[in-house]
């Protein structure tokens, strides 16, 4: 579904959970510095049937919800690693 949305111009980037924060920050910087207009995605949705658009966007919302919940659950663990004396916490699997 992500690839379909990207091909339709409805989303700007696809990121794995590991790349999500970096990708989000890069997109936010692009928006803040006016490097990439974000209205293109909005104009693309006007060209699709409303039921198809709603179906695609609902799928994206559900994916984003799952990703956000997973990331929020991991955040305290990541912060504890950051503030700990563990020399290399990357061997822990989250």
UniProtKB/TrEMBL annotation:
For this UniProt record, the keywords arranged alphabetically read as follows:
Isomerase, Lyase, Multifunctional enzyme
Listed GO CC annotations: peroxisome
Domain of life the protein comes from? Eukaryota
Which GO terms label this protein's molecular function in UniProt?
Answer: (3S)-3-hydroxyacyl-CoA dehydrogenase (NAD+) activity; isomerase activity; lyase activity
Q: Which GO terms describe its biological process?
A: fatty acid beta-oxidation
Protein name, per record = Uncharacterized protein
